[in-house]
Design a protein that fits this description.
The chain is an alpha+beta fold and 849 residues long. It has 27 helices and 31 strands. Strand 25 and strand 26 form a beta hairpin. Bound molecules: O-methyl-L-tyrosine and zinc ion. It is an enzyme of class 3 (hydrolase).
């Protein structure tokens, strides 16, 4: 375990490393408890550096031998690395270290998962493999020899030679150590082939454990589509002879873009219709694309330091979102992204963990793989594209790839290519990178003499370490609708740059209804006191699919808030509007399914808190239940027809069209189950032939307080399948009523299949506990205590996953004094745990504030 001493690292302190690395040769002699890593590294003084301290990172390594230019030395060793005296000229560093992959439960560095060796080096895992300047601005070519008695031995780059029990790999592209990877095991390849636009033949392989062969075809097709898309849209070609993907069961994150050897959490790559839902397929396609796209945005051009993480992550998320929009439905993707941003990034940005897209300090970089860096980082790029236009965006990207190929870059480099290609001053835009918090844009309207005046104001609440906020450049896409629903002014992007600004639309025949923030053109909170009649009007007429959906969402939120605070009954504007949308068969089923969604209960809690009302999770839950019930009754005549959408005649395809139909059918089944007590859901479960149907019908049954037999049958059917068993755990906790959530979760922790050291299993159970808002926030604090117990238990085993899950407590200050006291007690208990990791220490102390 790591030293928990909190050292803060600052962006302003960046200095280049004193030495350049010309080449790295690594030899691995694999053994579960004593793998030997021999390194031979050519260093030379860096002419651009002033500090010549020769410090190499290294953690949990047993140094056997170190030599410089063949002469054995005794370096000074600490828990973080070693220091040695070196010549003021090029020299060769050699070291032999021993490591223990079998006991590496943190899943950083070289570790074992089901008998297979694999690595995870981002962000700072390479230092657990050997001594090295483990920082992204130190780039080198790597040659790797693996000696091991296993049939498949993989590393980065191209295979150069192999024999019985050994293999050699050469990666010709200079890379930082965080992109290093090694995999060794008994694996089966799903092969593929791709010819790049310039004619390079690339051998593709998706490697899985025996037994998982039936789940690799979809991932392979997604990879080929990604390779083609990046050529067509960004002109980016693949640059090696092979591209390998490996599925691993024990993995902290979704996947990793190691050069030529992507390593995936098996949940992010393995799929079959019988075991995966439509949502799983879509996610897998997006993650495969994301990791592949990193080959250019991340690998060929990498980050100078970890403060620049959004340079690769924001851009790559933006690119994978473009890909999904092209492969599937662009409006549906945009709505999903807005839902996710509001559910995950907004709470982060408006709470104690708030940090800029480019942070200025950190203690543990692993804690900064956040929704802010990734998703808000992508939104920032979307805004930049919106402001400069599509053509200028392409030109700037071409320049970026040309100019910075092979470099480790900064946000300044990124913005510079836009400034040069557009002539635009982006100094104010840069605040999106430096300023944390979600801007709130409020709207005031005026109408006189054919002129409609829109006054937009922006403000951002203080966030930790940032009291005063400056106005940002906010692209606000606006269209105007006339009284009959026609578009009287087409979408225009208003650039809000001041704290308050007025925009006029002249020559209008009648007072228009504005459609503001079309396409969710900026990641802001729009405060617009429009009437429900106006919302219903937009729901009926807006030609912007995002805002049409948003109008329904705002109606739903408004009615729910009134139900919670005024004991109002569900509003007719909402129910009638919904009914017309559901009846409209010209609308994409996936879009209609989205219309049936409600704001999450946690979002409602945030909305109440914003209004100065302390949220009561039970009251929120009751309102959501009541509205669901009222909706079911209101649209009941339509339900059989909508439900029949699920029954797609053609063979199962996880494409947008079929999955959209199933989404609508599933939403209809959920409402039907509220009226028939689950009869239809039981029928559907009995003849379900894909996981989407099986899981939907089972969840409807559980929600109706039924399904015990089906749950047991599901277990019997799928107990051999790890990924499906994750669903079995998650479903029971998510579907439990508020009073039984904690009890259900607690009982499941005793189940023999609760392999809590596996991050997927841990998250399936504990993540669902946190996601069940009313259940987690049970008044006696039992939910908080259960989570804290398990975080304390997991921390010494896997600090990274523990720390990420601590964020469950980030919203604690929204709730009443009693709940706050109960949560504080658990946070303190975690903080006071002897030997708590640096990861969790940082998270808990930031949350406590
Ligand atoms: N770079 C990967 C995600 C990743 C990040 C950190 C990790 O360990 C701390 C692992 C994976 C991606 O964006 O997909
Ligand atoms: Zn990424």
């Amino acid at each position: 375990m790591r030293d928990a001493a909190p050292t803060t690292i600052y962006l302003k302190d960046y200095t280049p490393f004193g030495y350049l690395v010309d080449s790295v040769h690594l030899t691995f002699d694999l053994a579960p408890n004593a793998t030997r890593v021999t390194s031979r590294i050519k260093f030379r003084p860096n002419p651009e550096a002033t500090d010549r301290t020769f410090f190499l990172h290294g953690e949990e390594l047993n140094l056997i031998r170190a030599a410089i230019d063949g002469e054995v030395i005794t370096p000074e060793i600490t828990a973080e690395g070693l220091t040695a005296t070196v010549p003021d000229a090029p020299f060769i560093w050699e070291a032999v270290v021993e490591i223990d992959p079998a006991n590496n439960t943190a899943l950083e560095g070289l570790y074992m998962s089901n008998g297979m060796y694999c690595t995870q080096c981002e962000a700072e895992g390479f230092r657990k493999i050997t001594y090295y300047p483990d920082r992204p601005d130190v780039m080198s070519t790597f040659t790797v020899r693996i000696n091991g008695d296993l049939p498949v031995l993989l590393s980065n780059g191209n295979p150069s030679d192999k024999g019985e029990g050994w293999a050699e790999w050469v990666d010709p592209w200079p890379k930082p150590a965080y992109l290093f990877a090694l995999v060794a095991g008994e694996l089966i390849a799903h092969p593929g082939q791709f010819t790049t636009k310039s004619g390079r033949d690339v051998e593709l392989n998706l490697w899985v454990r025996p037994g998982d062969e039936g789940k690799s075809a979809f991932g392979m097709e997604a990879l080929k589509k990604s390779m083609k898309w990046d050529e067509d849209v960004y002109g980016r070609e693949y640059d090696l002879d092979v591209f390998n993907i490996v599925a691993v069961d024990d993995f902290n994150m979704g996947a990793m873009e190691n050069k030529g050897l992507n390593i995936f959490n098996s949940s992010a790559v393995l799929a079959s219709p019988e075991t995966s839902t439509d949502a799983n397929f879509e996610r897998i396609e997006a993650i495969i694309a994301h990791e592949y796209f990193h080959n250019w945005t991340g690998n060929r051009i990498t980050c100078r330091d970890w403060f620049q993480l959004c340079l690769k992550e924001g851009l790559t998320v933006f690119r994978d979102a473009q890909f999904t929009s092209d492969m599937r439905s662009a409006p549906v993707k945009r709505i999903h992204d807005a839902i996710d941003l509001r559910a995950r990034q907004f709470p982060e940005d408006n709470g104690p963990l708030s940090h800029p897209v480019r942070p200025e300090s950190f203690q543990e970089i692993n804690n900064f793989y956040t929704s802010t860096i990734y998703e808000k980082g992508a939104e920032v790029i979307g805004m930049l594209k919106c402001l400069v236009g599509d053509e200028a965006y392409s030109e700037a990207l071409d320049l970026y790839f040309d100019r910075h190929d092979g470099q480790a870059c900064t946000i300044e480099d990124w913005l510079q290519v836009f400034e040069e290609t557009t002539g635009r001053d982006l100094s104010q835009f840069k605040r999106w990178y430096n300023q944390s918090g979600t801007p709130r844009v409020s709207v005031a309207e005026d109408w006189a003499d054919g002129t409609y005046t829109l006054t937009l104001s922006q403000r951002t609440e203080p966030t930790p370490g940032q009291e005063d906020k400056q106005p940002q450049v906010i692209p606000v896409a606006v269209g105007l609708l006339g009284p009959n629903g026609d578009e009287v002014r087409v979408t225009k992007v208003l650039e809000l740059t001041e704290a308050e600004q007025t925009f006029k639309f002249t020559g209008l025949a009648a007072k228009p209804v504005p459609s503001i923030l079309r396409g969710f053109s900026a990641p802001v909170i729009l405060e617009h006191d429009s009437t429900n009649a106006e919302r219903a009007f937009l729901l009926a007429h807006d030609i912007d699919p995002f805002n049409r959906w948003q109008a329904g969402r705002s109606l739903a939120e408004d009615t729910l808030l009134r139900m919670i605070t005024e004991e109002a009954t569900p509003e007719a504007d909402y129910l009638d509007g919904l009914l017309s949308v559901l009846r409209d068969e010209t609308l994409d089923p996936a879009y209609r399914a989205l219309m049936l969604g409600l704001p999450t209960q946690s979002e409602l809690a945030a909305a109440l808190h914003d209004k100065g009302i302390t949220p009561d999770p039970m009251a929120i839950w009751r309102a959501a239940e009541t509205l669901r019930q009222a909706t079911a009754q209101h649209v009941q005549d339509l339900l059989p027809r909508l439900h029949s959408e699920t029954l797609v005649d053609a063979p199962y395809q996880p494409d947008a069209e079929q999955s959209g139909k199933r989404a609508l059918g599933s939403a209809a089944l959920a409402l039907t189950s509220r009226l028939d007590g689950g009869i239809k859901a039981a029928e559907e479960y009995a003849h379900a032939n894909n996981m989407t149907q099986q899981l939907t019908s089972l969840s409807c049954l559980l929600r109706a307080g039924k399904g015990e037999a089906e749950l047991a049958a599901f277990y019997d059917q799928w107990q051999h399948d790890r990924l499906v068993m994750d669903k079995w755990f998650a479903l029971q906790v998510s579907m439990a009523g508020p009073e039984t959530t904690v009890e259900t979760a607690s009982k499941l922790t005793e189940h023999p299949d609760f392999n809590w050291k596996n991050p997927n299993r841990f998250r399936a159970l504990m993540g669902s506990l946190v996601g069940n808002h009313a259940g987690f926030h049970q008044t006696d604090g039992a939910g908080y205590a259960l989570l804290a117990d398990w975080l304390i238990r997991l921390d010494p085993v896997n600090p990274q996953t523990t720390a990420r899950m601590c964020s469950a407590f980030q919203t604690w200050k929204r709730y009443d004094a009693n709940r706050q006291a109960l949560i504080r007690k658990q946070l303190n208990r975690i903080a006071e745990t002897p030997g708590l990791s640096r990861d969790s220490t940082e998270m808990v102390s930031r949350i406590l504030g």
